[in-house]
Amino acid sequence: MTDGNPVGAFESGDGLNALVPALSARAERVLNAQPRTRGLTASLPRADTSPLRIALLGPYSAGKSMLIAALRRLPQAAVAELVDAAPKTHEPTPHPWNGVTLVDLPGTLSGNDEHSDAARRGVRGADALMIVTTSELPGEAETRAILQVLDADGFADRSVVVVNKMNAENSDRDVILDEIRKRLGPFSDRVPIVPTDARDYVTATNDPDLTAAERDLFVAESGIDALTSELRRITAPGVSGVRPKAQGFELLRVLADAEQRWVLDGEELDAVGTAKKVEDSIFRAREGVLSTLERESEVVAFKIRKAGGRAAAGVSEKDGVVPVNVAHTVRGELEGASTQFDARFSSAVRTAFEALVAEYGTGVPEPEAWVNDLDSPETTIDASPDDESPLARAAREAAEKALKAGAGKLHTLIGKVTDSGSEQGSAASEFVTWLNKSRVGQKVLDPRGKITNGVGKFKPWGKGKAADKVASTAGKVQWALAVMGPTMDLMSVAQDQGKWKKIDKRRKMIRDHYDDEARRQQTGLTNAGKQHLSKWIAEVEQSLSGLTKQGAEISAARETALEGIKSLREEAEELVRLAAD
């Protein structure tokens, strides 16, 4: 068999006879993997070259045993032994006939459930069927049983419908046959309908008082010869031509039984239901937070772009500088965006937590407080170009010193500063020195002029105050400054008018920077928020594992088993299709 593909195996020349055992062997491994399906492996079809089995299925007193006696041409004494008016046949009984085996099944619809169950087992082991009814016509229950074996059980092309006792008094053959065809519905053209009277045949062959002419008439009108011809026709392909399809359908029935074994009830169903309920609750909690995270990170990105547009629009056409009030407004917008995100994301997590507590009590762990730990852009130090302005050089030198102090990022530089006397504080002082050379830089840190002399210089004590302020802005200001950093650089260098490109290009550079920063910050917020959420959800799952463990294990085993069964069923259905072609 080629990788579990029945079509490939068939086309490669292995033949259908090799496919069923190979597929059954795989099914045995799948079913043996779980205790609840292990007992079904005995019903799986195996390699079998025994004679074809034709089972006689029908209600009690339909004359199945008499039909067997007629087909086998039994003498009167053997007939009397075989035929009994009571539902004597408890188990399928085999009878050899013309190189095949006729299997007399217990009568159905007798009110004996054991007989019906035994008949059902006999059908499952049959290669072909004689479906026996009578001239009294099948009722609703019998009609349903006939359609079941023709359709779902796949016997439509391997069956003969026998209408026995047709020579009874007041029987109108044409009317009866028309009614039988109606009840067979879509199968009336696929399944041969043979009218018979097995008792007349047995009488004709065993009554010594009949003349030859009378005997011939009885035999002809009994329909047994016509039935013999139909049975020979459907078994003509032999074991290799009929059995693979029969076994394919039996394999499908076993797999259907295996799926039925996974229909849960009782404590198992309750356990799975509880696990599913907890899973759904956690899913709702997670999805609610993720929805807020996605929406609010988009809002932050929008506000960054909006701030960038404001900064770009504010570039002076006279000297290329972004006015101080514009820079201050931009910083405020950025701080507000970050603050609003933190508040709304934290609120979403809190709402999810409270919903779970309402369902499962105080055992639900409380999430850690959300901290906006956004990275600012890496500060890269390039070699000093020949045309570097004094201000650009000062900024680069300050950044170099910051790097030596272990501050590779602007926000790290600010966040690590503790006092103006330390090495990190010295880095902050250098940073302030750089800002001191830009009025915009001064205003960003000191918008009200309290630590500057109002004329573009820090007061004597102002530089230290500014350094302290840098050290204390580990939150939103820090992030806003980091986002604005390149804009501030541009403003500083802008003082050297000879180094600047056209104003519109500068505006584009600013917008592009903020666009890039919006994308980066949105991604950073989303990733950080997901990590924060995932950590808490993992704690929740662990905390509630006592409620979910048993059900989760059952569900996992069930899902794995059903997936394997489904795959086998699809291959078996393809095998049956091939056998029908």
Keywords:
581 residues, mainly alpha, 22 helices, 6 strands, elongated
Walk me through what this model shows.
Residues 6-14, 373-396, 398-425, 439-475 and 489-499 have low confidence and may be disordered. The relative contact order is 0.10. The chain has 22 helices and six strands. Helix 7 links the parallel strand 4 and strand 5 (159-164). The chain is mainly alpha-helical. Strands 2-3-1-4-5-6 form a six-stranded mixed sheet, sandwiched between helices. Helix 9 packs antiparallel against helix 10 (212-222) and helix 12 packs antiparallel against helix 22. The protein has helices at 6-11, 16-32, 35-38, 64-71, 76-82, 113-124, 140-150, 173-184, 198-206, 212-222, 224-235, 239-261, 266-313, 324-360, 390-404, 410-416, 423-436, 439-445, 462-472, 476-494, 503-543, 545-580; strands at 53-57, 93-97, 100-104, 128-134, 159-164, 193-195.
